[in-house]
């Protein structure tokens, strides 16, 4: 029988699947439903220093092969998610979870880091450097100088396990440059990838965009993102220090997709668009499909094939 247990840094998880930040994780009720699902762990909605209402609706749409969204980081504020995480760890000792946070400007990041450092939170923190959907705000991790400055400021105050959520990169020189920066900091993980930023979808019946914010531009997820996600996980696995783990995100709609992200080096696999469109049942379906794929290949544990992609 195949086991889906996994590890990331010093942490162990009963199942390799988790939600992707932003999907089914904004409120306590949603987070509790994730906790009661087969997912091995969960991550909160990206929290900012102050609560945010986000962008005007409609701001999310299901497409033929995935989703488009321009949510604009609606969230209940970092204090809400820290309080939830503290309560969670009291109720569920030994079940580590992730906080996701983002600054609206670079100077917010050390403030967020200090808040979490000063809290009782014992899990892992994902600093989101890649939200494509806040009007007027660039995706930080496409600006390498700002990325380095933010990491330096975070790690001046932050001593707990930390990671960064990255946007997709498309050029091998970018992978080299970003990995060189990341390897200089005591990161426990990266999460790759966030949505493909600023896609556009047009309704053939009405010639209009699918969502309202930013003239219809939005982050693309689902099957459209899979080859890019595989490439990003693989490229970073080849370049990052061995002690930096990877959460593989992007384009996972079947157990086979998850298997391929693990072949590229993922320690955990997170579900965004498919969780948004199929609901929590996706964890059960994908777990069983991944077990079948492993059985077909003769594997009983994820460690046997993690990172073992074959090339010609
Ligand atoms: C509705 C929605 C909201 C999202 N909000 C966030 C967020 O708050 N923080 C974040 O890091 N990523 C956010 N994302 C990106 C996802 O976490 C994920 O990286 C992306 O959707 C790619 O995965 P997928 O192909 O499985 O959808 C959001 C995605 C969707 C669809």
Give the secondary structure arrangement, pairings included.
Layout: E1 6-8, E2 11-13, E3 17-19, H1 28-35, E4 60-63, E5 66-69, H2 78-91, E6 98-101, H3 108-118, E7 124-128, H4 144-157, E8 162-166, H5 172-182, E9 189-192, E10 196-199, E11 202-203, E12 208-209, E13 218-222, H6 226-239, E14 245-249, H7 255-263, E15 268-271, H8 273-278, H9 281-297
Parallel strand pairs: 3-15, 6-7, 7-8, 8-9, 9-14, 14-15
Antiparallel strand pairs: 1-2, 4-5, 5-13, 10-13, 11-12
Helix pairs in contact: 3-4, 4-5, 5-6, 6-7, 7-9
Brief digest:
This protein has 312 residues and is of the alpha/beta class. It has helices at 28-35, 78-91, 108-118, 144-157, 172-182, 226-239, 255-263, 273-278, 281-297; strands at residues 6-8, 11-13, 17-19, 60-63, 66-69, 98-101, 124-128, 162-166, 189-192, 196-199, 202-203, 208-209, 218-222, 245-249, 268-271. The protein is 33% helix and 18% strand.
Class from secondary-structure proportions:
alpha/beta
How would you state the average pLDDT, rounded? 97
Radius of gyration: 18 Å
What is the rounded distance between the termini? 31 Å
| SSE topology string | EEEHEEHEHEHEHEEEEEHEHEHH
The CATH superfamily turns out to be: Aldolase class I
**Poorly predicted tracts of residues:** none
Give the biggest beta sheet. Answer: 7 strands, parallel
Strand content: 15-25%
Indicate the CATH class. Answer: Alpha Beta
CATH topology: TIM Barrel
Number of domains: 1
Number of strands: 15
In the sheet with the most strands, the strands line up as 3-15-14-9-8-7-6
Global shape = globular
CATH architectural category: Alpha-Beta Barrel
Helix content: 25-40%
Number of distinct helices: 9
Hetero groups in this structure are: flavin mononucleotide
GO molecular function: dihydroorotate dehydrogenase (fumarate) activity
Cofactor: FMN
Subcellular location: Cytoplasm
Catalytic activity: (S)-dihydroorotate + fumarate = orotate + succinate
């Amino acid at each position: 029988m195949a086991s889906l247990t996994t590890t990331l840094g010093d942490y162990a998880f009963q199942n390799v699947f988790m939600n992707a930040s932003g999907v089914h994780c904004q409120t306590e009720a949603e987070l509790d439903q994730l906790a009661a699902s087969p997912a091995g762990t969960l991550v909160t909605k990206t929290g900012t220093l102050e609560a945010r209402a986000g962008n005007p609706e409609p701001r999310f749409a299901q497409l033929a092969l995935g989703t488009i969204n321009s949510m604009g980081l609606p969230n209940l504020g970092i204090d809400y998610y820290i309080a939830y995480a503290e309560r969670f760890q009291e109720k569920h000792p030994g079940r580590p979870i992730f906080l996701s946070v983002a600054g609206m400007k670079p100077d917010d990041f050390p403030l967020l880091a200090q808040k979490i450092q000063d809290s009782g939170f014992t899990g892992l923190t994902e600093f989101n450097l890649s939200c494509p959907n806040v009007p007027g705000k660039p995706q930080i991790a496409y600006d390498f100088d700002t990325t380095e400055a933010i990491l330096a400021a975070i790690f001046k105050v932050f001593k707990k396990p930390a990671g960064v959520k990255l946007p997709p990169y498309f050029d091998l020189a970018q992978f080299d440059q970003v990995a060189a920066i990341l390897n200089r900091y005591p990161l426990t993980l990266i999460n790759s990838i966030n949505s493909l930023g600023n896609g556009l979808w047009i309704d053939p019946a009405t010639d209009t965009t699918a969502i309202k914010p930013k003239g219809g531009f939005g982050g693309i997820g689902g099957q459209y993102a899979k080859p890019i996600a595989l490439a990003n996980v693989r490229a970073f696995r080849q370049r990052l220090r061995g002690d930096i783990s990877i959460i593989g995100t992007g384009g996972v709609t079947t157990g086979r997709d998850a298997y391929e992200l693990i072949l590229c080096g993922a320690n955990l696999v997170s579900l965004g668009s498919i969780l948004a469109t199929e609901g929590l049942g996706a964890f059960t379906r994908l777990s069983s499909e991944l077990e079948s794929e492993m059985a077909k290949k003769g594997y009983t544990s994820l460690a046997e094939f993690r990172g073992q992609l074959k090339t010609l």
